[in-house]
Amino acid sequence: MRGECFPVFGNTRKSILLTDPKKYQKPRSTPGLKSLSAKKDDLFSIGPGYKTPLCFTRKENCKGEWTWKKRIPIPGKYDLYIFGLNDAIDTTEFLEENNNAPLDIEVYNYKSKSFDLLCKNKKYDKSDNLYAGKISPCHVSEDGDFKLRITPHQLVDSSSEDKKDILSDAATQRQRRSGYAWFNYAVITPVPVNGRINVNTAPARLISCLPGVNNELAKNIAAGKGDDDKSALKPYKQLGDLIKVRGMTINNFQRIANLVCVSSSAYTINVELQVIKDLNGDGKFSGKEGDKILAERHKRIIIAGKPNTDGKMNYSVVD
């Protein structure tokens, strides 16, 4: 059912209605018009997450904590972005002002066993997100766990004393907000990796070296084989096309997404130089027994390319 969506017509405490109760028909998905096929322990997403808040609060200084288990397999430095609902914009003819509640963003440090403050009193911008800062390897556990804490400020609570004090500038500012602090989802940018594997050109043997990729999945990726057992997915136009590969799971994709690419803009060059003395004078290298190697040198170079205005690539050595 990957990629299919069902409308929700209603719900009870223990059930979700996928069809109009007044009409006797099977629920059908979009875009595939498939009927729901569910098995025990199947996982579903109700939302989607970027439209439905993961959490919200109306209480001042109410700390919310979330832990993601085994989500960051590669240690390194990452940029952290927080997304939430921007529903408190005060607009006039000449000015649009963001009146969202300011947030404190903290991440757990697994070495010091305490939370580190990334940013203080930060607000969502008009794109419904904020940049919290950089996280380090110490903010990721040995198992790849990541823990986040968000604390909102200056909310309007019905029991708040500031709400009664209409003469207070701070109270007036708070009244102009919605009274809610929303958190939808967090985004962690991947660590850049030089020399990613191009899944459009790499053989199955090389692809099988990726984490979580067995020989069968590697062959399917190299062949561009989909769930219909046809080799029609290649050339891959974007990384998301790999989700359609036969045997690919979300967990597999998340582990390799930062290590692969669909077009090569970076190359690794292994250079081997040798100065040879032609002992027998035949003009050919006859090996170490026939000729003599006077000196040799090995070097590994990574070059990266950027397109010009005319579509051609300019390559330079990566330090």
Topology:
Blueprint: E1 10-11, E2 16-17, E3 55-57, E4 64-68, E5 78-83, E6 89-91, E7 96-98, E8 103-109, E9 114-122, E10 129-135, E11 146-152, H1 161-164, H2 169-175, E12 181-183, E13 185-188, E14 197-198, H3 204-207, H4 215-223, H5 250-256, E15 260-261, E16 266-277, H6 287-290, E17 292-307, E18 313-317
Parallel strand pairs: 14-15
Antiparallel strand pairs: 1-2, 3-12, 4-11, 5-10, 5-13, 6-7, 8-9, 8-11, 16-17, 17-18
Question: What is the CATH architecture term of the largest domain?
Answer: Sandwich
* Helical proportion, percent range: 10-25%
In spatial order, strands of the major sheet run 4-11-8-9
Radius of gyration: 28 Å
How would you name the oligomeric state of the polypeptide chains in this document?
Answer: single chain
Shape: extended
Low-pLDDT windows of residues: 48-53, 91-96, 158-167
CATH domain class name of the largest domain: Mainly Beta
What is the CATH topology of the largest domain? Jelly Rolls
Number of DSSP-assigned strands = 18
